[in-house]
Specification:
- Chains A, B: Keywords: Aminotransferase, Pyridoxal phosphate, Transferase.
- Chains A, B: GO terms for molecular function: transaminase activity.
- Chains A, B: It comes from Ottowia flava.
- 2 copies of one chain form a homodimer.
- In chain A, the strands form 3 sheets. Chain A has an 8-stranded mixed sheet with strand order 2-9-8-7-6-3-4-5, with helices on both faces. In chain A, strands 10-11-14-13 form a 4-stranded antiparallel sheet. Chain A has a two-stranded parallel sheet with strand order 1-12.
- Chain A has 2 domains: 5-40 and 290-396, Aspartate Aminotransferase, domain 1, CATH 3.90.1150; 42-287, Type I PLP-dependent aspartate aminotransferase-like (Major domain) (Aspartate Aminotransferase, domain 2).
- Chain A contains 14 helices and 14 strands.
- Chain A is an alpha/beta fold.
- In chain A, β4 (137-144) and β5 form a beta hairpin.
- Chains A and B meet through α2, α3, α5, α6 and α10 of A and α2, α3, α5, α6 and α10 of B.
């Protein structure tokens, strides 16, 4: 069988290889990219599902509008307004099957084969692959502890005139980094000035540990004339309510939004209305604030435990910036004292010791730094985190 | 903003225009393409959702395997085996976000811009659009009352060497037609002989009124050597359990299946696990047989009422084949006695009288027959169907 040419652009063996390692019994895994399902408010979701099936029976069981279930669109709009995007209206927001579908639809609408796309290096692996499947040439803009290097990004945009720039400005995956307020302004100014579409993917922004992060690009765009017309915001319930609902949302300029709706119609018609009506009931019941407080406290505690243990156990052999939210610590082997500098080699030794993480190379569309790695603290308790780091230290030798 | 070139291949204004007409108060609509949500077993689905959230809590609320929730894959496999595809294994079946996503993934995996695809004329509109969005040139194979004209199809395949042939062999949308057993064999023989991928889209096959239809291409492929390697079967729970779950499935040869899984990973990661665990519980509870009996009886009654009323009211001015299952009557204005022959013009008059259907032209990828139309009997009761047909008769004048 001859498959479509677009499949030639995607290489997935590196990831498959990784996940093969994780089947080992007794392994402490820092490799996952997922939130902790035990933090989900299962009773609240059950109550919401029952309310949906009882009160909104037809809406829950039938096909729905491709744009999404209007009461959910309204709830999500209110959620965004409460976070500072005070001028957003429900008509500007559509529901997607996870924010992953948002990426897929945007790529489908925007990217012709050979078009250029700029992403952070490192960034979310599935976004790189998604863009490549539509034939994009993916270009990397470097990041530091303050998020994407906007000075470099501006030059890359000028040089390459990309169809879009994809950013995770807050508690990035895998970087954990958060773009500063000043850089956020500059990104928006650049979008408006160069008429370049910027996608803000924001699945983690609500998972801050202490203080809230700077306002989203969406909220800030109200203050930067002309920027809203070149900005897409993608949100997700997967990390804050339940990944099992597979619900995200997308806020985009009207002409692009209309096209994403058309593409969604021919992709999956609509997102599960059982899930949508359940989510709408959940949000209407006002439980989200407590759910978020609970998750913030748990993840914050785990992040502190992991960072403290890494510092204590590895000293200057591993460098990292303490994340202020999200699910990940992004770290770099320094080679200090002659220690290992290759994260892939370290991971192989670590798996033999009964602990795993993800070497950083696959998160780069280009110019990978082989000394980098991602550690997730999301799903292990304090004792497991300490034991896992203990094994990591042993593995580094 | 400059959008992707692929969007230039799709024209949706004809459909939008249509649906604008349906907002009129008091209208009897035969225009819908949807099943009757009131036939859903809401108590059974509620029970299943509660069982899923209680017994499979983590599976219901977390991310899941891209291939689908294994207990659901096993239930769907058993469902297919019970319908004659006795050699199918759960590993050969993946869960999709409705069978619409099956089409999207198959198109993504198979179609490079300029590739050819053969579909029935008429066929499911969203399949045509889905294929065009991946740059396909869509070619039409004519149908008659016995489904696709296999003699013509064979010649078209030889002439065009398409990447795939898309068929709805049983109770087609919009045609209502069912491919005969003999033609089914010939399709499979052609697939094996010419090494041409055939997609069997089968959302309606379980909705027969009296006798079951001929075996699916999937079941029959066991008897046609070499055909299974060029056959994809797409199924859906949308018409038989609930469209709100947004769950379908796809059975494909291993090399193609692996690629659809990869594409699904970057499309929506996995289908809603809340929906999947609910569906698995529902199927395991053994309620499906009664649910199907109920739907078959209801749709069969409505189809008879509509066909009887059309024959009585319009005589030889309208020709159609009585469907043996599904949701649709496909009909053709004959112009007998000097009556109208244009379905679009009739529909405009009909809307003025308070009844609507879908003119047939948009269901053709090419060579549309403007005298054709689709009438759905799915969502109206007998009295409404009679009143609607009465208005149709008035409108034809």
């Amino acid at each position: 069988m001859t498959f479509a040419q677009r499949l030639d652009n995607v290489e997935t063996s590196a990831i498959r290889e990784l996940f093969k390692l994780l089947g080992k019994p007794g392994i402490v895994s820092f490799a996952g990219g997922f939130p902790d399902v035990t933090l989900c408010d299962a009773p609240g979701i059950t109550e919401a599902a029952n309310a949906a099936l009882k009160q909104d029976t037809a809406a829950a069981l039938a096909y729905g509008a491709t744009e999404g279930y209007m009461p959910l669109r309204e709830q999500l709009t209110a959620f965004m307004r409460a976070k500072g995007a005070t001028d957003v209206k429900a008509e500007q927001l559509i529901v997607t099957t996870g924010s992953q579908q948002g990426m897929d639809l945007l790529a489908k609408c925007m990217i012709s084969p050979g078009d250029k796309v700029i992403v952070e290096g490192p960034t979310f692996l599935a976004a790189i692959q998604c863009f490549r499947l539509y034939g994009a040439e993916v270009i990397t803009a470097p990041i530091d502890a303050d998020g994407v290097r906007v000075d470099v990004l501006e030059k890359l945009v000028e040089q390459h005139q990309p169809k879009l720039v994809y950013l995770i400005p807050t508690f990035g995956n895998p970087s954990g980094a958060t773009l500063t307020l000043e850089r956020r302004r500059r990104v928006l100014e650049m979008a408006a000035r160069t008429q370049t579409l910027v996608i803000e993917d924001d699945p983690y922004g609500d998972l801050y540990f202490d203080a809230p992060p700077p306002p989203t690009l969406l909220a800030l765009s109200q203050e930067v004339p002309g920027s809203r017309g070149y900005l897409v915001h993608c949100g997700s319930l997967s990390k804050i309510l339940s990944a099992g609902l597979r619900l995200g949302w997308l806020i985009a300029p009207p002409d692009l939004l209309a096209r994403t709706v058309m593409c969604k119609q021919f992709s999956d018609a609509n997102s599960s209305t059982l899930a949508q009506t359940t989510a709408a009931q959940y949000l209407a019941a006002g439980r989200m604030a407590a759910t978020l407080d609970h998750a913030r406290a748990a993840y914050g505690q785990r992040a502190r435990t992991m960072c403290d243990a890494l510092s204590a156990g590895l000293g200057d052999r591993l460098e990292f910036v303490r994340p202020q939210g999200g699910l990940f610590v992004w770290a770099r082997l320094t080679g200090a004292g002659g220690a290992l500098k290759d994260a892939k080699a370290w991971n192989e030794r670590a798996v033999a010791e009964g602990v795993a993480f993800v070497p950083g190379a696959p998160f780069y569309a280009s110019n990978a730094d082989p000394a980098t790695l991602r550690l997730s603290f999301a799903t292990a308790d304090d004792a497991k985190i300490r034991e896992g780091v203990h094994r990591l230290v042993k593995a580094l030798g």
